Amino acid sequence: MMTEQVAAPAASVPQAPTVISAQGLNLVYETSDGPVQALKDVDLKIDKGDFVSFIGPSGCGKTTFLRVMADLETPTSGTVLVNGVTPEAARKARAYGYVFQAAGLYPWRSIGGNIRLPLEIMGYSKAEQAERVQRVLELVELSGFDKKYPWQLSGGMQQRASIARALAFDADILLMDEPFGALDEIVRDHLNEQLLALWSRTEKTICFVTHSIPEAVYLSTRIVVMSPRPGRITDVIESPLPKERPLEIRDSPEFLEIAHRVREGLRAGHAYD
Amino acid sequence: MSWILAGLIVWALGLWANVRLSKRKGRAAALAVPVIFGLVLVFVWEAVVRGFGISPVLLPAPSVIAARFGQSSGVLWQDFVQTVLKGALTGYVLGCGAALLTAIVVDRFDFLRRGLLPVGNFVAALPIIGIAPILVMWFGFDWQSKAAVVVVMVFFPVLVNAVQGLADTSAMQRDLMRTYAASYWTSLWKLRLPAALPFIFNGLKIASTLALIGAIVAEFFGSPITGMGFRISTSVGLLQLDLVWAEIVVAALAGSAFYGGVALIERAATFWHPSQRGR
């Protein structure tokens, strides 16, 4: 059973292989108020190079789904495959980088030291560590800040450092859980632009949880709309927007049309309560 | 009478100087205020003892204590080595080391947290006066039994603080280690121990004062003819109160230096903690 599933994706798809697939995924939390269905019958396929946003109101299971992919939560039933293997195997193979809602930098380590942390754990050589730290710092425009400590930097800079930390090692998948949720609009616009540039340069597969419609539409190739109680997928929208996206694209009719469809999807999910 | 008058004048002068100095800013002023306070206190003490002719058995004058300090410096040094370096410091290192290792084990296995912590609590509640004679019987009169008393005294506060510190990481910090597929030891070394340091140093600072008390008190229950506790208890019997006071001065200096040393290491090791930043 297990080995068949591992073999299947590699054999079947020629150009854009499936990186993440979920089938009949259910996750039920036992709480003191009785069971809570965080995810119900979730089916989804994510191809290599996709930028997939998960959008929905709080409690819709978008973060839970991301955490299932990362093997930080265990589903009650159903299967998830990441790179063709179980999330646990993918985690142990260091297949993904995870960016949390808050930067979560260790205060006793400098910015450079925080980015070096995964590299130290994964056993990169000293020279390679230094080289990679410099490169990812440049990527997030934080060159020259490697000696500073997290608490000496602004929130936006800390979040950029945490993205650099997730980029430092060679994971093809980037899982981002509302990384810009706590930042103001101006900083967020800037970081969105940078993230898009980074995505087109590195060709990583990105899963991005957000509750901002413009952010989801601006960034994604696919938008997964979710709704709560029970957490489920209500719509999957393929974006017709080109890969090159200046910030002004947000005023184009195509953009507004997709945004409209996302809003409709979110409203439909809420219709019963 | 002239001594009392002099005491009053010096006190008034010191008060006036400190009131003026405390309004000024800067390192020199901040340093001068406590120094002036201390000097005035010592002088007033001297003046009161001489002016009222207080018996040296009740309260020797500072000058007498200082003279005794100079005359008996050889004995005092011997006692210092015996009690502080051999007894207190050995016990401190052994006790704190054992507590830290135990904390890591307790943290790893939850049933130990529930089983060992109450036992540690029980041991900590035992009065030192009660266990010191027993430990002297077990480990002999020399400094080894004093170190044992110190071990018992410092073990629990360090253990409790360290266990609490090791649990003081946020879910996100632990999740991050999980996404790196970090082993238990890696996450202990790179996350939980650094995060626990502020707690551990709290325990170490408490233990530093306990260690000195333990080593001195334990000597009351049997010791070779050297040691600060031995000297204090026998000198009281001989009415040599000036020597008792000289030992107290040594104890105060050693205790402050011990605590200050631990606090300095703490500042270097936990510079990132909000309580230490910008100092």
Automatic annotation (TrEMBL), chain B:
Residue stretches in coiled coil: none
Q: Which UniProt keywords apply?
A: Cell membrane, Membrane, Transmembrane, Transmembrane helix, Transport
One Pfam family name is: BPD_transp_1
Q: Does the keyword Methyltransferase apply?
A: no
Chief subcellular location? membrane
Q: Note the topology in the membrane.
A: Multi-pass membrane protein
From the record, give the transmembrane residue ranges: 27-45, 89-107, 119-141, 147-167, 199-223, 243-265
Q: What SUPFAM superfamilies does the entry give?
A: MetI-like
Q: Which InterPro entries match?
A: MetI-like, MetI-like_sf
Q: Is Cell wall biogenesis/degradation included in the keywords of this UniProt record?
A: no
Q: Which residues form the ABC transmembrane type-1 domain?
A: 98-267
Q: Where in the cell is it found?
A: Cell membrane
Task: Name it.
Answer: ABC transporter permease
| Organism field | Salipiger mangrovisoli
Taxonomic placement: Bacteria, Pseudomonadati, Pseudomonadota, Alphaproteobacteria, Rhodobacterales
